[in-house]
């Protein structure tokens, strides 16, 4: 069956999931180390995937590791850090062609899984049991550059600042890459200690997405983790406040030409799939598509902003509306955004808008399975949310959402935070 999702436990706090689809010619294998977001450890954890990507015992430097990847028909090894709800996810992935397309009958899935296991569990430690100092220096600086560079994308920066203000004091407010002051303190000793703790305590989700047979890869990871001392922390869904109190407003001035207005909302308790489907549809109709209320009225008809969109995070229950505005139009844009939410709450949207939004949302869901990376991320989100729905399941769910359910969902939404990033003085 295409896109069949199967997940099983292969170790203490270690799960392996597979999604197979014969239309692909490649496989993507990913190890995700899932750690609670913690202010004290988030920064040093963030450097770990990039240190591991530098080499391993079998390929002790970056050059030899890349030579090995070339031998594997140009396989690619990548790493990243992401944030899912209240968790930091350290990701290592390998992408390579399937066994069916090799010239000499090589078992590519096994080769790739073996190399990824080496990179993860047999890092290039020196005789002192530490990462090489030059690697730590390089990746520490790279991490600092990444953290500092986030402010250059003002749209992303404004969204992040608004969420941090909304969730002050909660794990949700912690940045996924951490903080400059902590990055400066990273040493070979602290990085090695963080690595050992992550391998011991992280929840591990290993995915195999593609056209191949995952059985050999699963056995390689099962055998490898059987030799690892594990004491994994429990992974529980983090629940933030469902409703806002009195809205708070923050203004920040930087050297920007285009101001950024972000409104953070709480969407109430979402206890089941039906409530989730209604909220997802409501957000799409409100500001998640090119025919949404925010795009059509706030941007196009009233010309109050350069862009205006709503996004919903299923893991946190937060809805963010962000827009690029002229400084003088800030209040008008804010008032009209809230007015359009009122339209949703009163059900003053047309059947044509509802039908068009359903079709657009369902089209977007169909496109998920066109990409190995998107498919993998979809199912990791499902795992983090405690579910196992496929894109096809949610396409069917969208079909069942009624006008009344959308109105009810809209009336659960409360404004929590208004964040305004603007130029200094009259600029």
Write the layout of secondary structure elements.
Layout: E1 4-11, E2 14-20, E3 26-36, H1 42-52, H2 62-71, E4 76-84, E5 87-97, H3 108-121, H4 133-149, H5 154-166, H6 180-183, H7 188-201, E6 203-210, H8 215-226, E7 248-254, E8 259-266, H9 273-288, H10 293-301, E9 307-313, E10 318-325, H11 330-346, H12 351-367, H13 372-384, H14 391-400, H15 403-410, E11 414-423
Parallel strand pairs: 2-6, 7-11
Antiparallel strand pairs: 1-2, 3-5, 3-6, 4-5, 8-10, 8-11, 9-10
Helix pairs in contact: 1-4, 1-7, 3-8, 9-14, 9-15, 10-11, 11-15, 12-14
List keywords for this structure.
427 residues, 15 helices, 6-stranded mixed β-sheet, 22% strand, alpha+beta
């Amino acid at each position: 069956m295409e896109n069949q999702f199967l997940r099983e436990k292969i170790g203490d706090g270690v799960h392996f999931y597979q999604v197979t689809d014969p239309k692909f010619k490649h496989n993507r294998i990913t190890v995700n180390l899932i750690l609670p977001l913690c202010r004290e450890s988030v920064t040093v954890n963030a450097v770990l995937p990039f240190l591991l990507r530098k080499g391993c015992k079998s390929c002790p430097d970056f050059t030899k590791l890349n030579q090995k990847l070339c031998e594997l028909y140009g396989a690619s090894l990548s790493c990243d850090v992401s944030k899912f709800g209240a968790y930091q996810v350290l990701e290592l992935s390998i992408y390579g062609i399937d066994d069916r397309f090799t010239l000499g009958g090589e078992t590519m899935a096994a080769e790739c899984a073996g190399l990824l296991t080496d990179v993860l569990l047999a890092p290039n430690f020196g005789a002192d049991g530490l990462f090489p100092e030059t690697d730590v220096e390089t990746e520490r600086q790279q991490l600092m550059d990444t953290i500092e560079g986030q402010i250059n994308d003002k749209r992303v920066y404004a969204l992040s600042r608004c969420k941090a203000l909304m969730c002050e004091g909660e794990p949700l407010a912690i940045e996924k890459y951490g903080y400059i002051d902590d990055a400066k303190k990273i040493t070979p000793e602290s990085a090695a200690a963080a690595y050992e703790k992550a391998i011991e305590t992280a929840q591990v989700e290993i995915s195999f997405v593609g056209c191949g047979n995952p059985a050999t890869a699963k056995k390689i990871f099962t055998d490898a983790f059987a030799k690892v001392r594990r004491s994994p922390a429990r992974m529980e869904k983090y629940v933030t406040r469902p409703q806002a109190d009195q809205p708070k407003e923050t203004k920040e001035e930087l050297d920007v030409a285009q101001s950024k207005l972000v409104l953070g909302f709480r969407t109430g308790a979402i206890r089941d799939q039906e409530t989730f489907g209604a909220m997802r549809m409501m957000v799409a109709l409100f500001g998640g598509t090119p025919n949404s209320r925010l795009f059509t009225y706030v941007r196009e008809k009233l010309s109050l902003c350069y862009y205006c969109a709503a996004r919903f995070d299923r893991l946190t229950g937060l809805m963010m509306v962000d827009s690029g505005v002229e400084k003088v139009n800030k209040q008008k844009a804010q008032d009209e955004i809230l007015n359009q939410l009122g339209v949703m709450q009163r059900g003053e949207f047309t059947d044509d808008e509802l039908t068009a939004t359903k079709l657009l949302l369902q089209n977007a869901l169909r496109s998920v399975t066109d990409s190995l990376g998107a498919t993998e991320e979809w199912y990791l989100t499902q795992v983090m949310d405690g579910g196992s729905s496929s894109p096809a399941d949610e396409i069917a769910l969208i079909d069942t959402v009624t006008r009344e359910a959308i109105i009810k969902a809209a009336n659960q939404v409360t404004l929590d935070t208004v964040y305004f990033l603007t130029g200094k003085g009259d600029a």
